[in-house]
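Let us practice reading a record.
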Amino acid sequence: MMTQTTPSVYRQGNRILMPGLATAHSHAFQRALRGRTQRRATLAGSFWSWRGLMYALVQKLDPDDIFSIARFAFVELAMSGVTAVGEFHYVHHEPGGVPYTDRLTTAEAVIKAAQETGLRITLIRTAYLQTGVGQTLVPAQQRFADPSVDHVLEDVDALRSRYANAAGVQIGLAAHSLRAVSPQQVVELAAYARQHNMMFHMHVAEQQREVDECLQRYKLRPVAILAKGGILDQNFVAIHATHLDAGEIEALGAAKAFVCLCRTTERDLGDGLPDAAALVEAGARLCVGVDSHASSDAFEEIRAIELDGRSRAEARHVVAEAPDLLLAATEYGYQAIGLGDAWQNDRVYLNAEDPAIALINEDLLVDAVIFGATPRAVDEVVIGGRMVVKGGVHILYDEARIGYEQTLRKLELL
């Protein structure tokens, strides 16, 4: 049963205390791309041209690289107030698609990175079983792809068994997208998730091309396909949900599904602007994700929901006010990655004298934190009783940074 406690922000001496923040959607390895994909690679830059650059990185990574990049990415998140991460994990196999001797090798690398940094992690084992309509797998996608749903679920079973007693580690399940998983396969995966009371995640309508391909192949839009298959419920997490029509928004809301918005990445990739106000009005529960780690500012990720909605509406106070945004970033974020009430055990202490939030009246504290704070204000972060950030710096920052830089040199990304 979920708590009725409301997330709050309050002053404690010269600090401001708030709950830990959850980022419900992360691809940690993509942190290595930050600042390296901004030059025009094709005549028309788009998500698809960016994807080609991401695939080039994927081909170079070994498990040690994945660990080092993820560890530094998680250190940065902790220093911005994040205490829990949902890692949407789909780099499973060796280059060429051959499984590692231990099929869980890359998943373990990411989990180890979170454990070392102290973040709670839900490793969301992601199914990737095909590519787009009428297409064959490109070399990088061979690292993602499994031959069947059974292979995916065998790995999920193995992960659940291996980490059954590991503090701070949960296992989740995802279908990558309707480009990568057929509707019938999505039904099979969702049935497993329901059977085991797991949250079920999926990229949904991130790109207009996905919508067009679904209409061409299935004669239905993405959310309509999921509704027809009985997928939508309170344990479903739609990632992005950018290109929806009114009926799809209503279906997600009626199901009380989660919608995870990743605005810094969606902006960076030119994905489009989801109608967050309509989703909230319909009854969907919003949470946030760092996605490609284009930015490690958790406060910007949260307030962007409202601020981008203002740009759409050409008005203010459009999607949600500060207390509701705090709810999305804490309790809803934890619930979306299967961590329930654990947010109550994680704390972020902000420096109340940081200029961005200094001298704020008590009744405006939540507003100041959500709409004004930056990671600079984060003083201490405590996760399950363990202090991982002190004086604004993660306790493993130097080690993680050195390991990250060594990996960039090895990959020839410097």
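A brief commentary: The chain has 15 helices and 14 strands.
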